[in-house]
Amino acid sequence: SSSSSSSSATRMTAAVDPCDDVVLFMPDANESLERQLNNYVLAAMLATFANKAMVVLDAPRESICPSGEDDDDVDYPLAFSSIVKSPEWLMQGCPVPCRATRTYADWDDFRRSDSPVAFCTKDVDSISTGTSTTGRTTSVFVVGGDETRVYFDGYFRKKIEGAPTSVSYDWAVRAGAAPREAEVFSKLTGEEMYDYMGALLVRSDVLRLQQRIRDDTNKHIWAYAYPRGHRKTPHDAMYVRRGEDAGADPRAKRLYVDSYWDAASGIYDGATRTTRRDYIPLLHYMRHYHDVKCSGDLRRVYIATDDPVTVRREVDELGPETGHGVLFNNCHNIKFTVSKVKKILGSSACAARYARTVADISDFIVVRTADTFVGEFNSDWGKLIRLFRLALNWEVGVIGHRGMLGPAQKLAMGRRGGAEIDRSPVLLKDTKVAWGPMRPLSPL
Is the pLDDT of residue 29 over 50? Predict the structure, then answer.
C-alpha cells in the first residue's frame, strides 16, 4: 500500500542519516591553540576515514575566560568554534548530539573513559535529512585533546594503512577528491598517503577561520608582518620556537637542544659560534642562505618567534647594516621583520589571550605562504605549517596563479631529487628543516 511504501521510505531515509553516528570533538581549553588545531585536523582525518560526521563541542566560557578576568567587558571569541568554522562537508548538518540530556561534563567523562563511544537519544533533528529523526539512538565517538592521537596510534593507523583500495578511494572522495585523484590516492602507502590526504583536507578548507578572526588577523598582518606597500612582495619565513612553546615536554625539548649542540662542532667554525646555549641559534637557521646564489636584490625574511627580544639581538649580529637591511655573509642584503612580543598584548587576561590568538594565527598565515620556509617539526606550529604547504601535483600551476604557491621549480618533496619532482603525487612548497627529523613522526 501507499502507506507502507511511505513508511518504508521514511525508515530508509532515517537509516542513512549521518547524524546516527558522529565524532564529537572536544577541544581542550588548557592546551595551546596550535595543539588544538593539530588535534582538530587529525580528528577530521579520522572522521572522514570512518565515514562519520564530526561536530565540535566547546568548553564552557568560564573555563576559557574566567569571570572577573575580562575587565573591559568585551566578549572575545576565544572558544574553538569562535575561531574555526567547521566546513559543512565535515559536519554534514549535524548538531551537537543530545543537548537536552547530556551536559559538557557528561561528555567530558566519556572522553576520559576507557570506552569513548556513547549512545544517546536524539533530541534535535539533523539538517541533512528531510524527515524527523528525533527519538532515534545516535552513536557518539568522543575525542579531544591528546586522546585523538592515542586512538590514531592505537587503532586507526593500522586500519588506515591496511585498508583495501576501495576503502581508500571512498575516503579520498569524502575528503573532496575528484575520481582521478581518489584513484591515485588509493594506490599510495605510508608517508605519501598521509601527505596526499593532508593536501586534500587543506584544499577542502578543513581549517577555515571565522569572519571576525579573519578580519583581525588581516589587520595584524598589515600592521606588523608586512612593511607598508610590500604585502605581495615575495618573502621567506622562519619559525624560531623557544621557551615553553617549543614543546610540551621540557625534557624532550632539552634533549632536542642538547642533540644540536652535541653536533655543533661539526656545523660551525670558530669557538665563538659554538658557545653552548639553551636554544638553537638563529645563525643555524641562516645556513640555508649559504646555498643561495649571491644577489644585490633585497630579500625579505619574516621571523615568527616566541623569543623576539633575543632574536632581534641575533639579527643585529648577523652582519653590518646596509641602509635597507643586513648584509649577511658578505652576500645577501636581507630585510628582517621579527614578530612582536605576544605575552604583553591586551589589557586584560581575556584580551591578552585573544590578542595572542590573533598574533599566532597571523604568523601562521605569513609563514605558510612564504616562498621558502625554514623551521623544524618538533613544535605543533611547525607540523601545521608543513601540512598547509602541501599541494597535489597536478594543481601546482593552478594554485600558483592564485599566489599560494610559487613556480613549480620552487617546490620540493622531502629528499626527492629534482628529476623525480614531476612524478610525485603531492608536493611540498620549498621547506628547509633547520634541525631534527625531516618530517613529523605522525601526520600531525
Answer: yes
